[in-house]
């Protein structure tokens, strides 16, 4: 059933100022239109920013525990509607239902976690060097925040940004991907139902090139949190720097799993299949490279190819499906072009390599799970983010060689090592130049109570999610207060 998705501005669902619309299509069955969506103009963005600006003082002065109570209620509603939202997510984005339900669960977890932060937005009270004087610091909101989110996690990633922004006392203009607007609208409706006041959260729909760029450059926005490609993220970071805005950009990855000669190969195989082909390789954390010790390279490659060949493609709503479609035609063509590049570079195509147009895949954007061997570190398929079900297998001589291969890209989001040697894992933990390191696990599986982000071209600015150094640092600024009750002028560092 086709939905109608409008903008949400000042507490009201409303059509765009131009009346124009666009369609959200099911990537597993392009004959299904999931939603007809209002296409925002600059006027809509202005209206949303003005609504957020108007609600800011009231929301900022709402006690933080009360803000947290609203998020807690949102978590309860999300829990009750988890299946409904998960099925919508599968229809709109394509990932298999089990993964879609996990996507929603992350939003539930983040709602509950950040609800608790309403009672933990702590600062410090510390001694002064002078008598009759005290000193304290505290967190305050940064103002009106623009949140720009991708299509691959259309519920979890918005929640990663929305929940900390809101509990901190900010108001929000939320611009989701134009490929997943129905998921965004349902999330916003749940927050409205939970009791969020009018104007605190505003939703605008449209393309990144038009709506997103204008939002990022808007002088009424105090900070931008973006998740998406490195090229777009660096452009947003430049725009924000020129306008003095706070910015957080979570960007691309070229993640790798190291498989050492002493690894549990069966365990490593599960991690490689999940990391490489889960979400059809459309995660910033996907394991697009396997760096395998020469002693087990050939054996593991045979195991990996056999496992990939058993994966079943199809609609994510079918329980037997292992791998769903890629998001759209342009992405399918991009991935197929990279597969052609791998062949041209001299890599060996082990399995896959084609679009799938049979067995229930006739109407969708499906690509066979694809593996290349004989890949060398300088090849484009080993250096550039493909964002599809394509995995490159590289041979390593030893641990030092493997770490060098992993670190030898412009990205630094996630890495992993499979080994039963505690000393090797300790060296890898220290030397791998990524924001996240997994030991005996895949590159997928971050938990919301710790910061999420990468090094080099994988991340810029504050990190995402919870814990010290996470998203609360993005959405709050520090205020320091000195109170002198001596009744006389005291000159610090002079009168001491």
If you had to describe this structure to a student in words, what would you say it looks like?
The chain has 496 residues and is of the alpha/beta class. It has 2 domains: 273 residues, Aldehyde Dehydrogenase, Chain A, domain 1, CATH 3.40.605.10; 184 residues, 3-Layer(aba) Sandwich (Aldehyde Dehydrogenase, Chain A, domain 2), CATH 3.40.309. 38% of the residues lie in helices and 23% in strands. The protein contains 15 helices and 27 strands. The chain has a 7-stranded mixed beta sheet, sandwiched between helices. It has a 6-stranded mixed beta sheet with strand order 10-9-8-11-12-25, sandwiched between helices. It has a 3-stranded mixed beta sheet with strand order 1-5-4, covered by helices on one side. It is globular. The mean pLDDT is 97.
Keywords:
Aldehyde Dehydrogenase, Chain A, domain 2; 496 residues; 2 domains; 15 helices; 6-stranded mixed beta sheet; Aldehyde Dehydrogenase, Chain A, domain 1; single chain
CA-based shape: globular
Put simply, the count of helices is 15
| Helical fraction | 25-40%
Number of DSSP E strands: 27
Number of domains: 2
Q: Strand order across the biggest sheet?
A: 15-18-19-14-13-21-22
Q: Which superfamily, in CATH terms, is the homologous superfamily of the largest domain?
A: Aldehyde Dehydrogenase, Chain A, domain 1
Residue share in β-strands: 15-25%
* Overall average pLDDT: 97
Distance between the termini: 73 Å
Major sheet characteristics = 7 strands, mixed
- What is the CATH topology descriptor of the largest domain? Aldehyde Dehydrogenase, Chain A, domain 1
The unreliable regions are: none
CATH architecture of the largest domain: 3-Layer(aba) Sandwich
For the record, what CATH class of the largest domain applies? Alpha Beta
Structural class: alpha/beta
Radius of gyration: 24 Å
């Amino acid at each position: 059933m086709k939905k109608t998705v409008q903008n949400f501005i000042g507490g009201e669902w409303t059509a765009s100022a131009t009346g124009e619309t666009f369609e959200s299509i099911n990537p597993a069955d392009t004959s299904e239109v999931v939603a007809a969506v209002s296409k925002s103009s600059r006027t809509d963005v202005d209206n949303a920013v003005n609504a957020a600006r108007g609600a800011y003082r009231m929301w900022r002065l709402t006690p933080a525990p009360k803000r947290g109570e609203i998020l807690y209620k949102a978590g309860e509603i999300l829990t009750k509607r988890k299946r409904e939202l998960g099925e919508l997510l599968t229809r709109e984005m394509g990932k298999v239902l089990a993964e879609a339900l996990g996507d929603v669960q992350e939003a539930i977890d983040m709602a509950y976690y950040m609800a608790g932060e309403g009672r933990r937005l702590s600062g410090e009270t510390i001694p002064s060097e002078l008598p009759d004087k005290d000193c304290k610091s505290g967190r305050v909101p940064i103002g009106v925040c623009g949140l720009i989110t991708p299509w691959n996690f259309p519920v979890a990633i918005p929640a990663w940004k929305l929940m900390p922004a809101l509990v901190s006392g900010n108001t929000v203009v939320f611009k989701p991907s134009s490929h997943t607007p129905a998921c965004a609208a349902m999330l916003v409706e749940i927050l409205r139902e939970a009791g969020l006041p009018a104007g605190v959260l505003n939703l605008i729909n449209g393309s990144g090139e038009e709506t997103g760029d204008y939002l990022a450059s808007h002088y009424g926005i105090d900070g931008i949190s973006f998740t998406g490609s490195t090229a777009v993220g660096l452009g947003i970071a430049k725009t924000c720097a020129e306008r003095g805005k706070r910015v957080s950009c979570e960007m691309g990855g070229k993640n790798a799993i190291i498989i050492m000669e002493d690894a549990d190969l069966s365990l490593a195989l599960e991690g490689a299949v999940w990391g490489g082909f889960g979400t059809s390789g459309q995660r910033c954390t996907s394991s697009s490279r396997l760096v395998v010790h020469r002693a087990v390279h050939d054996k593991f490659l045979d195991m990996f190819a056999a496992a990939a060949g058993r994966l079943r493609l199809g609609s994510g709503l079918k329980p037997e499906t292992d791998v769903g479609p890629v998001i759209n035609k342009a992405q399918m063509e991009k991935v197929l072009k990279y597969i052609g590049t791998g062949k041209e570079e001299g890599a060996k195509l082990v399995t896959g390599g084609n679009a799938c147009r049979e067995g229930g895949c006739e109407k969708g954007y499906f690509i066979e799970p694809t593996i290349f061997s004989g890949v060398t570190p300088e090849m484009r398929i080993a250096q550039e983010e493909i964002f599809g079900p394509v995995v490159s297998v590289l041979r390593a001589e030893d641990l030092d060689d493997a770490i060098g291969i992993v670190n030898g890209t412009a990205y630094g989001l996630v890495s992993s090592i499979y080994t039963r040697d505690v000393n090797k894992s300790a060296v890898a933990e220290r030397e791998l130049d990524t924001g996240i390191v997994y030991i005996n696990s895949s590159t997928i599986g971050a938990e919301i109570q710790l910061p999420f982000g990468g090094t080099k071209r994988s991340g810029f600015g504050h990190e995402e999610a919870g814990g010290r150094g996470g998203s609360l640092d993005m959405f709050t600024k520090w205020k320091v207060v000195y109170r002198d009750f001596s009744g006389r002028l005291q000159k610090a560092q002079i009168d001491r």
